[in-house]
Amino acid sequence: xxxxxxxxxxxxxxxxLCVTGEVKITDDGPVLQLADxxxxxxxxxxxxxxxxFVTPADGAPHPGQLxxxxxxxxxxxxxxxxxxxxxxxxxxxxxxxxxxxxxxxxGPIRLLRQAPGxxxxxRPGGE
Length: 127
Prior knowledge:
This protein has 127 residues and is mainly beta. The protein is 5% helix and 27% strand. It is built from one helix and eight strands, in the order βββββββαβ.
């Protein structure tokens, strides 16, 4: 217990909770692992929660990396105006990486290859 003062709740008031954690896949389905060691099951579609997918398991995309969406489409990460990383498909389609990662038909995105010369680049000339 902490000495932090909390606002009083009112019976019947509606609240929105924001809980941050890391997804772990278990035999019982996905769970949200919290920093304090507790976990929350995510497998029940009837749970009244909205899930926002924040960062891919491989971390946020960086310029020069090659990523794949859930449909197998490949996306090249590049720096756009304003310093944001955007993804470009072979057909020239461009999208924010966050949008690709969050949408049910394209997410989650996963890293296919590091930028040339970066750790994890297994091509000739990579480290």
